[in-house]
Design brief:
Radius of gyration: 28 Å
CATH superfamily: paralog of FGE (formylglycine-generating enzyme)
Number of domains: 1
Largest sheet: 4 strands, antiparallel
Number of strands: 12
Strand order of the largest sheet: 2-3-6-12
Strand content: 5-15%
CATH class: Alpha Beta
Number of helices: 4
Distance between the termini: 115 Å
Oligomer: single chain
Structural class: alpha+beta
CATH architecture: Alpha-Beta Complex
CATH topology: paralog of FGE (formylglycine-generating enzyme)
Shape: globular
């Protein structure tokens, strides 16, 4: 009996020791520190803008980006600076907030919308109608990556999705070669937040069209003929194709087709506004309605009171020529994430003596 009890006791002891050993192997040592994979690469955002680092277990063979998810809390109202009085074409003014050059659009009437005999016009561009607008100032160029970074650094621009870090390349928004290129912004309300931060606002659809076409019912900002010296658009894509995976990406596009915001001087509007056709689509303040022109006010229209989509204007670098016409209207969800061509510019009502 005694040998049998000895064998049983030995088995119990061995089983207890083995169980404790297994439990111990499932717990990290008390002194262990969290570790990251040595394959991780982060790209730091130049000061003063901060970035979200990328942390991953292993380097992916495909391009990856990390979106910034920032709080979208209400901002205090910014002081609007109307600048000097705007009375004639050719006047300019420089904003004290972001250093942007604004041009004067004097008060007066213009014909808005497409004529019945325009062969490329859609139904939502008609009827052509006469509109009076008070004088206003509008940004000469689209808002740049450099200026949008200033707004983010001040905490006034807080996009839900905005790529500033990546594993395998320097993103377009912070790439040093693209600071004078248009900021690509998917969210209309964040575009409006930038303009508010700068003491301005998004232009109304009517203001945008007058600034683009003037008063002589032209098809394009520069006149009635289109060629590749006037704008960046699909038919004129001369962007070098490259296999360099470290180069920037423009939104979901595999390569950038945008140009500097002050390129294409030959494509200026009658007031000297640049790139109002091509380069990037531009957000305006109005909600979209395809029938709005039939009942639009004749003085300072601001669009429908509500809607599901915002108006976007001007066409982008991947757009067909018909989208570059100054009367062309397009709609977009206020969070237009599927399109990497969205940009914007700001405006402000002029001082009235």
């Amino acid at each position: 009996m005694r040998p049998f009890r000895f064998i049983v006791s030995t088995i119990i002891v061995l089983f207890t020791v083995f169980s404790a050993s297994c439990r111990g192997n499932n717990l990290p040592p008390a002194s262990a520190e969290p570790t990251e994979s040595s394959a991780t690469l982060t790209v730091a955002l130049p000061s003063p803008v901060s970035t979200t680092p990328v942390v991953t277990a292993e380097a992916s063979p495909v391009v990856q980006t990390t979106p910034i998810h920032l709080a979208n809390t209400p901002l205090p109202a910014a002081t609007t600076d109307p600048g000097p009085a705007c009375t004639e074409i050719g006047q300019t003014w420089i904003s004290a907030v972001d250093g942007v050059i604004l041009v004067c659009i004097p008060a007066g009437e213009f014909l808005m919308g497409a004529a019945d005999n325009d062969p490329q016009a859609e139904a939502n561009e008609k009827p052509q109608h006469r509109v009076y607008l008070d004088a206003f100032w509008i940004d000469r160029t689209e808002v740049t990556n450099a200026n949008f970074a200033k707004c983010m650094a001040d905490g006034a621009c807080r996009p839900k999705i905005y790529d500033v870090s990546a594993m395998t390349y320097t993103p377009y928004a912070i790439h040093p070669d693209y600071q004078d290129f248009p900021a690509l912004l998917s969210e209309a309300d964040v575009a409006a937040a930038y303009c508010q931060w700068a003491g301005r606002r998004l232009p109304t659809e009517a203001e945008w069209e007058k600034a683009a076409r003037g008063t002589d019912v032209r098809y394009y900002p520069w006149g009635n003929e289109l060629d590749c010296t006037k704008a960046s658009y699909y038919e004129c894509d001369n962007t070098p194709k490259t296999d360099d995976l470290t180069g920037p990406r423009c939104g979901s596009s595999g390569r950038c087709r945008t140009t500097r915001v002050d390129d294409y001087l030959a494509g200026a509007s009658p007031y000297g506004v640049l790139n109002m056709a091509g380069n990037v689509w531009e957000w305006v303040a109005d909600w979209y309605s395809p029938e709005y022109y039939a009942n639009s006010p004749t003085s300072n229209p601001t669009g429908p009171d509500e809607g599901d989509f915002k108006v976007r204007r001007g066409g982008g670098s991947k757009s067909l020529s018909q989208d570059l016409r100054v009367t062309s209207r397009a709609s977009g969800e206020p969070q237009h994430y599927f399109d990497g061509q969205m940009g914007f510019r700001c405006t402000v009502s002029a001082f009235t003596p």
